[in-house]
Amino acid sequence: MQRVRGVRYLLVAALAAGTVGLAGCGDDGDDASSAVESAQSQAASIQSQVGEQVDSALSQASEQVDSAASQIQSGLDQASSAGEQVDSAQSQVSEAVSSAVESAASEGDPAAGKTVFMSAGCVGCHTLADAGATGAVGPNLDEAKPPAALVVERVTTGKGAMPSFAGQLSAADIANVAAYVSSVAGQ
Ligand code: HEC
Fold this sequence. Notes:
single chain; mainly alpha; Cytochrome Bc1 Complex, Chain D, domain 2; binds heme C
């Protein structure tokens, strides 16, 4: 915009110089040449003003670009810090879940768990010497020696051919059977 306006100034100045020059032709030569000189000096001053305007427009534009770039950068920084917060929240949740699972399992009563193991149907699918179980649908628990947390997880959510027992066993039953299996497997 500034540049276009500047070009327009130059044209107006040139026209003015020409008009003054033509008018000067009618009069004596000195007046005419001084009119031309003054028109030329006006044109030169307009030219330098235009140059300043173009410079200031360019420097404003470059400042705006800089500030837009720094806004974008700060937006990116904020996004990445939000991402880090989500990551840390997720890892806190997963730690809380696994520690809850571990504490639930470690609080179980193995003797009560044996009764659960015998009555809930585990024996039909798993081998576990202590329970006299010889099932062969799922892994041999004497060989697998699952930690209590894994027993809680499998019995609660199931996996593959193993059903979830969450609707059939209480949290305490599950903690008990986990304590039982993890303490007798492999013995
Ligand atoms: C219908 C058969 C079936 C019944 C009933 C069953 N399971 Fe399972 N169980 C499986 C199968 C199959 C797997 C293997 C799942 C997989 O990893 O794909 C399994 C996996 C497991 C595992 C993980 C073993 C490992 O090391 O990966 C444990 C622990 C377990 N069962 C315990 C139990 C307990 C305790 C019960 C009784 C509450 C039970 N299961 C009842 C079939 C059964």
